[in-house]
User: What shape does this take?
Amino acid sequence: MNSAGSEPRYVISIAARIVGIEMHTLRYYERIGLVQPYRSKGKIRYYSEIDIERLRHIKTLMCDLGINLAGVEVVIRMAERMTEMQRRIQEMEFEIEQLRQAETGIKRKLKKGVSNG
Assistant: This one.
């Protein structure tokens, strides 16, 4: 696991109690792809802190904001796409900066070559 927040630690009954939803709801969320808990070799679901936060977010969208489950799926998918797009933009900005630095270096070399010649 990459970070402490992604380490699976809560069985489904504990995760359901923490979030305040039913276990069958967690199973349904997994079935439709809203959350993917870790599965042990014995097929036991384990939820991480990241999973718990995601489930809390889903519950907030539904209970506090009145968004239905289909809307929640759309919101979450769009948020995931935005995060991926932001990551890609950062990569591209880094690549652009590297190209600018390379261009500056080439121009300096060309200038030196012209002034030496």
Summary: The mean pLDDT is 93. Strands lie at 10-11, 38-39, 45-47. Residues 1-66 form a domain with the Multidrug-efflux Transporter Regulator; Chain: A; Domain 2 fold (CATH 1.10.1660.10). Helices lie at 12-19, 23-31, 49-64, 69-116.
